[in-house]
């Protein structure tokens, strides 16, 4: 049995300072100041003296230290590289959302639910029985056993909320959680908000050329000596992400067996984030961590309807594991959101029930392999190194050779950020294709690894990717 978190304890204040590489948001934007000035001018014209009236000082309150430690108050990468800041017509290959809809037959499940009475009301906190049964059938015996929909599955409001609930259920203040870098950025605040301390183990870029291409490199590697050194008496959990965002790595069975040995030796919980499980390319083997000998009892597996069905806005995910891990997670998620969206649980259930007979995942995989090929071909023609994507829908491009004119006008919000922020900004504004700088997904100690890369998403239609590939060829004149 794993020890549950006690929420009766007060988290000790932290003395950790905000990262110098991630400046906090300004209190006022220029538009706010302009608006205040306009209001004052109107008052003056109405005969009210502006000289005797001063803008009211906004009252502030001390915020919890967890917001600072978890980077929640900083200007995050999604706020920098969003449509409002990018030039008109810029092709957005940064954020991982699709520009095509989920399958119509899956959406019909939500439409049917909205026409019913029950579909418009609260679902059970653990998820609708129909969806939990659909999840059981979908996974079959891939975990080495049949799942019990009553005690081994809980539906959550997206994968993120499910992970948050696990950390809320099991972390005590000071418990250490190992995450591999680069990491999905939501891991950090969710761990910190629940009293945990992230411990970072970097993946290392390969220098070997991937088979069948000229410039692409093989996937990144784990240094298991580093992983073992990261274990301390306070280590509570290891977080895996396979297929990996943003590297596109699919962990091999041998790598996962080594992680399993460490988890067994130190009695650790393992969170296996497998939301990209149906996007594994080139006939590569995908191993469920929980299916390894002895790992079911200590693993929570994370799944996502949004990733399976190109429906990220549904916010329907699930956590799978033994009752000792699922029951406390259910208790936490019930207090966090109570229950998840009822009609979209029906859409997810419809999708899982019909996907196999329709050959949906096989067709989707072929479509994503074609999309990957368009983007990779563009990188090969451009002559910039990239990491071969084994799974997920991201490619890392090495942008260390990108150069911009001296004195190029970058916005103040990029000051103090990694070099990749400026490179990605330059590419978006001068070439018209946006990406996400990878240093955002690192701690300060290892940021030098990340700032050589930008993440490009290929979860877009083929025509959009072709246009992006053509635009990227213009980068040649800016390469060292």
Automatic annotation (TrEMBL):
GO terms for molecular function: kynurenine-oxoglutarate transaminase activity; pyridoxal phosphate binding. Residues 1-10 have a biased composition (Basic residues). GO terms for cellular component: mitochondrion. It comes from the Eukaryota. Residues 90-472 form the Aminotransferase class I/classII large domain. Residues 39-54 have a biased composition (Polar residues). Residues 1-24, 39-63 are annotated as: Disordered. Its cofactor is pyridoxal 5'-phosphate. Keywords: Aminotransferase, Pyridoxal phosphate, Transferase. Pfam families: Aminotran_1_2. The keyword Metal-binding does not apply. Gene3D superfamilies: Aspartate Aminotransferase, domain 1, Type I PLP-dependent aspartate aminotransferase-like (Major domain). InterPro entries: Aminotransferase_I/II_large (IPR004839), Kynurenine-oxoglutarate_AT (IPR051326), NHTrfase_class1_PyrdxlP-BS (IPR004838), PyrdxlP-dep_Trfase (IPR015424), PyrdxlP-dep_Trfase_major (IPR015421), PyrdxlP-dep_Trfase_small (IPR015422). PANTHER family: FI04487P. Belongs to the class-I pyridoxal-phosphate-dependent aminotransferase family. This is Aminotransferase class I/classII large domain-containing protein. It comes from Pycnoporus cinnabarinus.
């Amino acid at each position: 049995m794993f020890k549950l978190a006690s929420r009766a304890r007060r988290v000790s204040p932290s003395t950790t300072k905000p990262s110098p590489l991630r400046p906090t948001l300004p209190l006022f934007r220029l538009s706010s100041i302009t608006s205040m000035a306009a209001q004052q001018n109107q008052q003056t014209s109405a005969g009210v003296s502006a000289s005797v009236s001063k803008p009211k000082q906004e009252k502030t309150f001390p915020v919890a230290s967890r917001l600072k430690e978890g980077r929640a108050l900083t200007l995050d990468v999604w706020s920098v590289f969003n449509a409002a800041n990018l030039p008109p017509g810029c092709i957005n290959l940064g954020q991982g959302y699709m520009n095509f809809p989920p399958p119509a037959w899956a959406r019909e499940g939500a439409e049917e639910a909205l026409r019913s009475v029950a579909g418009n009301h609260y679902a059970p906190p653990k998820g609708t029985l129909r969806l939990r049964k659909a999840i059981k059938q979908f996974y079959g015996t891939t975990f080495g056993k049949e799942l019990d929909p009553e005690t081994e599955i809980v539906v959550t409001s997206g994968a993120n909320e499910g992970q948050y609930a696990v950390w809320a259920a099991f972390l005590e203040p000071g418990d250490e959680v190992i995450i591999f870098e680069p990491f999905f950025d939501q891991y950090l605040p969710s761990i910190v908000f629940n009293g945990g301390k992230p411990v970072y183990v970097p993946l290392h870029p390969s220098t070997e050329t991937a088979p069948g291409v000229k410039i692409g490199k093989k996937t990144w590697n784990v240094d298991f000596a580093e992983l073992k050194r990261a274990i301390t008496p306070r280590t509570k959990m290891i977080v895996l992400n396979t297929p990996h965002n943003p590297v596109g790595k699919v962990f091999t069975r041998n790598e996962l067996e080594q992680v399993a040995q460490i988890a067994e030796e130190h009695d650790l919980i393992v969170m296996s984030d497998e939301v990209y499980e149906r996007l594994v390319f080139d006939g590569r083997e995908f191993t469920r961590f929980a299916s390894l000998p002895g790992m079911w009892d200590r693993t929570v597996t994370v799944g996502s309807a949004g990733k399976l069905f190109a429906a990220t806005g549904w916010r329907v995910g699930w956590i799978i594991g033994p009752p000792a891990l699922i029951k406390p997670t259910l208790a936490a998620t019930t207090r966090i959101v109570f229950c998840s969206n009822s009609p979209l649980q029906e859409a997810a259930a419809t999708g899982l029930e019909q996907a196999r007979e329709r050959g949906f995942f096989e067709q989707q995989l072929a479509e994503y392999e074609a999309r990957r090929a368009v983007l990779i071909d563009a990188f090969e023609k451009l002559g910039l190194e990239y990491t071969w994507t084994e799974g997920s829908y991201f490619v890392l491009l090495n942008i260390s050779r990108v150069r911009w004119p001296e004195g190029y006008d970058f916005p103040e919000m990029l000051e103090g950020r990694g070099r990749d922020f400026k490179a990605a900004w330059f590419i978006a504004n001068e070439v018209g294709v946006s990406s996400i700088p990878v240093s955002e997904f690192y701690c300060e100690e290892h940021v030098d690894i990340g700032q050589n890369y930008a993440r490009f998403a290929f979860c877009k239609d083929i025509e959009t990717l072709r246009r992006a590939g053509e635009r990227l060829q213009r980068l040649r004149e800016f390469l060292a």
